Amino acid sequence: MELSRLGFRSPEAAAARLAEIDGCPDDLVEQVAQVADPDTCLASLARIAEHIDGGAPALVALLSGDEELRLRLLVVLGTSEALGDFLARHPEYVTDLAEGELLTRPATIDEYRVWMRTATDADELRVQYHRALLRIAARDLTALTSFAESSGELADLAIATLDGALAIVQGEEEKSELTRLSIMAMGKTGGHELNYVSDVDVIFVYEAAEDADDNAALVVATRMASAVMRMCREHTPEGTIWEVDANLRPEGKNGPLVRSLGSHVAYYEKWASTWEFQALLKARYAAGDAELAQRYLDELEPMVWFASTRPNFVSDVRSMRKRVVDNIPHTERERQLKLGRGGLRDVEFAVQMLQLVHGRADPSVRDRTTVLALHALTEGGYVGRRDGAALEEAYEFLRTLEHRIQLFRLRRTHIVPEDSEDLRRIGRSMGYRQNPVDSLTKEWQAHRRVVSRLHEKLFYRPLLDAVASLPTEGLRLTQLAAEQRLAALGFADPAGAMKHIEALTSGVSRRAAIQQSLLPAMLSWFAESPDPDSGLLAFRSISEELGESHWYLRKLRDEGVAAEQLASLLSSSTYVTQLITRAPDVVALLGDDSELVPHDLDRLSTEMALAAKRHDVPDDAIKAIRRVRRRELARVSMADVLRMLDVVAVGEALTAINTATLQAALDVAMAAYEQQKGPVTVRMAVVLMGRLGGFEAGYGSDADVMFVHEPLEGAADSDATACATWVAQTLRQQLAVAGAEPPLQVDADLRPEGKNGPLVRSLASYAAYYAKWSDTWEAQALLRATAGVGDADLCRRYTELIDPLRYPEDGLSEREIREIRRIKARVDAERLPRGANPNTHLKLGRGGLADIEWTAQLLQLEHAGRLPSLRTTRTIAAIDAAAEEGLLEREDADTLIEAWTMVSRIRNGVVLMRAKGAESMVEANDDRARLAHLIGDGADRSEELVDQYRKITRQARKIVEKVFWE
């Protein structure tokens, strides 16, 4: 016989096995060749023949006399090496698969309880368990039972095994009469859908027997629970059963193993998290005191159905799902059958979320078993029939694949193997005879895609169908059910959300059809933010503005990234939403990351100048400049919210926008003077100060500037001053005009003599003032001065004028240092707003921006005269240079930079969130969640964000006290 032709991987080894099975007929060999793994099957047969009474002839005779027995045995041995090992140890149980012995239906839980109760010790329990497992596998692999029946039977066997183990333990425990102990099945065991190899999740509940001391009862109950767990997990020559996992109990592994019923109830009433109620969906009685178990269910089940009304219900469930995915080792993510994307957990989470939302009002959907719950949700109209059927098919395929993987060695695994021989065996066991590896892989990936797609549709698509005039695929989601689902998703105004959905999707127009296809995904993305209502409202407003524009609909429909980005922006940032609402065409920038790269100063200046030159009327020219500015602010802020820019890049980009705006506005104002007043008699420069001069502009920053002029040759000083003053005033008015959102407030209060001094000065006047009157604080302010707008030569000469002041060759005198510290102390004492918390004020608080910037500036004033590396207007660059020059410890410099970066990021984040400036860390929990979500830490980590902020600013303050205050 040509064994290689029959499909044996190792013909030589197969021939040797056949020699051990004396008298093996050819038709038996041909049947072996048809199983999933012929080599493993033949090896197991040879070992069974070696140990069975009567040897190989007896086995051959047995198989020849019972066709059903032979078929079942070969299929089992070709699929499971582990069950072959069991039969080699106990060949007497081969006849369990005989035609008259093996049930052709699933055994009931009561039959299993009787079966497992026959065991009188741990090893006998293991043997009886594996005998039952053999029978389940034989029925499963020969299609006598369906997947659902087999997984239910496995769960019943697990419960009966717990029952048998507890009976043995109670018989060995001298004081068992002191306590009533119940074992509650959880997870897949409780859900009547267990795998071949899985941890068996349980919760232990006890109650003291009548007249028994409670402490003594607890000790005994704990001892018995521990003994049950130990009996099931221990390895002996008869193998092991499985691990009993009690970590779903209150407080998890840190809580007591056994609790009283009253303690359980108190915990769930006060302390339980959303996921713990989700876990209780599967709870059912397993073993021990049945009456106590029923009271446990009666007390806790009602709480389950109100879990969806808890704050942040969906975000809690999603966060747990995300943590599960994040904890998968990177090398396993694409082959994780259970926890990976498009895997079993996606189906189970989707079904459980729908149960928790709708089960409160509809008891028909409360089934513990995933497939049966999906049936009920479909019949109840919460899931479309076609979607329900497709999801059930995918789930059954994935679970069957999981079973086949685990059966081979009876090991707990959810990883699809990479080895081609393993895949070939699994594929053949699932019926793929032609190209089993490729066929299995293709089918698996197809079902993963189905699960991923339907995971979204299950929760969001029915919301659209609920407002449609005709139900889809038998869907009957009522208005109330739809609003319940929206409330669970985090919408504060479900009825209002339904009206927005209806407005977007109603009718038979092309626009409505595209919106119907878009909204399930959009709603999903809105719901990921702490404020989905604002996202949906803004989406409706923008869609109504642009809905008939072909490019808008086409872009959102065809570019999934653009649609996802838009949803994220609208539900995260009021600032960005207002920009998009006023200029909806900026949506065209989404979907292509290159379009969200900020433009540099030269390009911005050119664009604004060209936009202004198209208009002869100054007001129209300014409006054109503001339109370009609005578009560029949208570009930067959208990139920021989408986490494409760090805070330094944002500061540089906003500085470039405002600098180009000032340059273009200056040109327009001078042209307006010429139109309205006559010839211009001055050259002008605008000196950028503060955060603008430091290239660190924020979304809420004013444009701090000083105006410098120089009379043209032959012009009178008075005429030149009047001209420069008119131009400066006009520029400020045009950029701050109401309705020019967001306006640019041009603040000139840092000029010599402040508000009391002239708005503009000539270069000569600045020189005279600095020579005679300039104070230390003005030299400090000039550290951030960048003469970057207007006449280039005038800018250069102004810079040459101020460099000796801000970078004094001899540093600072003790008197000047004391003066800076005195002013800083006065700022700390007087400028902090009344009622503001000094620990959380972003600018003036302890360790805030002012503390860090004044420290860097003091070092610059003291040392920049002799150390050119300190001559920079940028805060981070100055701190870095101070560390490189040995003026700061590197660790201290890194802490100051981290604190400055974090505070600046939060400051920008508050403006993005609210579209208005704020100087303090937000206090309300909802605002903190929104801020944490917006700046990338996640809404569920808002307290961590606050703790991190307080920690880093405390550390920065200690360094400021050491360096600035000495």
Give a written overview of the molecule.
This protein is mainly alpha-helical and 966 residues long. Among the domains are: 102 residues, no CATH class; 162 residues, Beta Polymerase, domain 2 (2-Layer Sandwich), CATH 3.30.460; 173 residues, Beta Polymerase, domain 2; 160 residues, Four Helix Bundle (Hemerythrin (Met), subunit A) (Up-down Bundle). The protein contains 42 helices and 10 strands. The strands form 2 sheets. Strands 1, 2, 3, 4 and 5 form a 5-stranded mixed beta sheet that branches. Strands 6, 7, 8, 9 and 10 form a 5-stranded mixed beta sheet that branches. β2, α12 and β3 form a beta-alpha-beta unit. The longest helix is centred in the middle third of the chain and has 32 residues. The protein is elongated. About 1% of the residues have low confidence. It is an enzyme of class 2 (transferase). GO terms for molecular function: [glutamate-ammonia-ligase] adenylyltransferase activity; [glutamine synthetase]-adenylyl-L-tyrosine phosphorylase activity; ATP binding; magnesium ion binding.
For this structure, what is the CATH homologous superfamily of one domain? Beta Polymerase, domain 2
Largest sheet: 5 strands, mixed
* Termini gap: 94 Å
CATH architecture name of one domain = 2-Layer Sandwich
Helix content: 55-70%
Average pLDDT figure: 90
Radius of gyration: 38 Å
Q: Which regions are unreliable across 5 or more consecutive residues at pLDDT < 50?
A: 468-475
Helix count? Answer: 42
Q: What class, by secondary structure content?
A: mainly alpha
CATH class descriptor name of one domain: Alpha Beta
The beta-strand count equals 10
Named CATH topology of one domain: Beta Polymerase, domain 2
What percent of residues are in strands? Answer: 5-15%
Shape: elongated
